[in-house]
Amino acid sequence: MSKRIVGIDLGTTNSLVAYMDGTTPRIIPDQAGNRMVPSIVSFHGNEVIVGEKAKQRRTEDIKNTLYSIKRLMGKGLSEVQSELAYIPFDLSGEEGGVIHIHVGDRTFTPPEISALVLKQLKQQAEAYFNEEISQAVITVPAYFNDSQRQATKDAGRIAGLEVMRIINEPTAASLAYGLDKKKQGIIAVYDLGGGTFDVSILKLREGVFEVLATNGNNHLGGDDFDHALMAVFLEEIKKEFGLDGENDSVLFEKLRSAAESAKVLLSSESSAEIKVDLGEDRLYRRKVSREEFEKAIGPLVESTAIPCRQALADAGLKPEEVDEAVLVGGSTRVPMIRKLAEDIFQKKPHLELNPDEVVALGAAVQAHILGGHMQEMLLLDVAPLSLGIETMGGVVSRIIERNTTIPTSAEGHFTTSADNQTGVEVHVVQGERELVKDVRSLARFTLKGIPPMKAGLPRIEVKFQIDANGILSVGARETLTGLEQAIEVKPTYGIGEEDVKKMIKDSMIYAKEDLKSRQLIDARTEGDVIIRMTQKAVDQHRKKLSPEASEKISKAIRRLQEVIPGDDHALIRQEIKALEVATNPLAEQILNQALQAEVQGKKISDVVS
Predict the structure, then answer these.
(1) Residue 609 pLDDT level (bands cut at 50, 70, 90)
(2) What sign has the CA pseudo-torsion 156, 160, 165, 167?
(3) 585 vs 603: which has the higher pLDDT
(4) Which of 9, 154, 324, 356 is catalytic?
(5) For the residues of 84-123, what is the DSSP string, one character each?
(6) Mean per-residue pLDDT for 43-72?
(7) Residue 602 has pLDDT above 50, yes or no
(8) Which end of the chain is more exposed for a tag (fewer CB within 10 A), N or C?
(9) Is 347 a catalytic residue?
(10) CA 516 vs CA 47, 48, 50, 526: distances in Å
(11) Distance separating the N- and C-terminal Cα atoms of the chain
(12) Do the Cβ atoms of 34 and 17 come closer than 8 Å?
């Protein structure tokens, strides 16, 4: 029996994991029934808290709670300067090196933090199936470059997952959509999530999903809508109260949270009210209308139109030639976005699929294809940006053009520029500009040992290969001598192989510690729930309890409350058990009442509710 492969949407705001149930993709919920895991990690002493509980800690412990990490993946510090106003983390990084995030006396890279979210999804799937999950398809924005894709693969490896395929988010959405609707023709996928925007033009025909063109902006998403509205609040608070929210991380986070809540409400309501406690008996309270919100985000929304029109032009299509428009990502719930998509593609976009879940569902379909279960489907993706090498004068010589279908390979032929040159440096770059200074550097290597010859005589063949994950390999060969040199491109801002190995090794070393932390969190959670339920039951039935039984329960509750803040999960479990024993008379009381009520013709739910 082949291993189960799951599909994962590693999102900026939320992440999901899905699988194929027969021919239908389904989201895997956690044990509480939650379908989405907030992409947030909080550190509390030795505890690592991921997901919903970490989200709850954002306002109370902002310095130790990390979010929107996807915006930092595969980037250098110089590339995220525009994000720093909205990410109150302590970051560092050398020129050309990976970003480091400092939390207390600990340091992490973005892939390590993303790996904690992936590990949570992995555990969620393992609990659901009661089996080990070690393989996954992970989605990325279509406009993610080579560095960002490699960083995503690194995160998967650190989390203990073999990443079977990196798949573009809009392409994944088209898979889920095509599976359900069996549509044929041209589809425009408009994908606006928490931190990135992509648009893809796809051609669907006889089970073949081909990406004709893709475009986007990996610095734009729903987070930016929050920030635009928050800027209004910050200015008002400064004028009215004289407070500088930009330099007060706690107040800043309160305002960001209020802006996010208002944005969500304004997607369905015409107005929303926010209240923010400023401390010292001061309250910032105001109503936000949809018109005001749309004015704040208008320039951001309009900026998504340019990549849409460019993608259509790259595909050689006019808007009226698009058969269907599909919206993906939670931010597409904003009415202004839906209207813009309808205006650009000249048709009402489809809204049947949950925009938060469709990417994960498509990833599950791709996982099913890779498992050999859906051989009638084929997925053809594209390279989002052109790839080439630096040639004389700092000029870019393109070898693979943007929007080339992958996997693919291509060659370029070059020669030397000086007499008796015995080595050639191959500088691999990515981007659409003509000069090397304006594009992204990916890697450098040197082809050495070329026999001395006059300039122009050596024949250097440079071959680029992109695999199905969008990962690039480059080789160079001098054709007269057969001398060769090859490299799998490790992006400038990727993590080194040794670092990845160390992180994987560390995850194994600390596995016992991680398990202990998880057991403690689970025990604390269960203890809190049992105390709350017991107190509610005692309040409802106190008159029928003997003083001795009531006192016994109260003592057991107090003992449990005393041990919950501690670090001994076994002791918490012991006191939970003691409370259960103490509540036996109460349980018997409720059961007797229920049976008596049934005899009298009442519903049991009337008694125990």
Answers:
(1) very low
(2) negative
(3) 585
(4) 9
(5) TTT---EEE--TTS--EEEETTEEE-HHHHHHHHHHHHHH
(6) 88
(7) no
(8) N
(9) no
(10) 9, 11, 15, 15
(11) 47
(12) no
Q: What beta strand segments (E) does 401-524 contain?
A: 405-406, 408-414, 423-430, 440-448, 460-466, 472-478, 483-488
In order, the DSSP letters of 488-543 are E---TTS--HHHHHHHHHHHHHTHHHHHHHHHHHHHHHHHHHHHHHHHHHHHHHGG
Compute the distance between CA of residue 416 and CA of residue 455 in angstroms, rounded to an integer: 5
Q: Is 34 helix (H, G, I), strand (E, B) or coil?
A: coil
Rounded distance, CA 464 to CA 409, Å?
Answer: 5
Per-residue pLDDT tens over the stretch 422-452: 888 888 888 777 777 777 788 788 888 888 8
**Which helix (DSSP H) or strand (DSSP E) does residue 5 occupy?**
strand 5-9
463: left (phi over 0), alpha (psi -120 to 50) or beta: beta
Q: pLDDT tens digit string along 269-285? A: 999 999 999 988 899 99
C-alpha distances out from residue 254 to 61, 217, 376, Å: 11, 27, 50
Contact predicate 273/286, CB 8 Å: yes
pTM score over 0.85 = no
Cα 19 to Cα 8: distance, rounded to the nearest angstrom? 9
Q: Rg of the Cα trace of the chain?
A: 28
d(CA 434, CA 397): 8
Whether 70 sits among the annotated catalytic residues: the reply is yes
Residue 576 one-letter amino acid: I
248 is catalytic: no
Cα–Cα distance measured from residue 264 to residue 557, given in angstroms and rounded to the nearest whole number:
39
In the set 30, 112, 191, 198, the catalytic residue is 191
Query: What's the CA gap between 466 and 396, in Å, rounded?
Result: 19
Cis peptide before 407 (omega within 30 of 0): yes
Catalytic residue among 146, 154, 169, 260: 169
Q: Among the options 70, 119, 122, 203, which is catalytic?
A: 70
What tokens does 478 get? 């001098």
C-alpha to C-alpha distance for 392 and 580, rounded to whole angstroms: 78
Q: Is there a catalytic annotation at residue 191?
A: yes
Helices 222-241, 290-303: crossing angle, 10 deg rounding: 130
The structure tokens listed for 479 are 């054709």
Pairing, β 271-279 against β 208-217: unpaired
The token pair that represents 96 in the structure block: 């050309």
b/e burial code for range 207-236 (CB count within 10 A of at least 16 → b) = eebbbbbbbbbbbbbbbbbbbbbbbbbbee
Residue 152 vs residues 28, 88, 168, 517: alpha-carbon distances, Å: 21, 23, 12, 25
- DSSP conformation letters of 192-246: E-SS-EEEEEEEEETTEEEEEEEEEETT-SHHHHHHHHHHHHHHHHHHHH---GG
Q: Looking up tokens 């189960």, which residue turns up?
A: 4
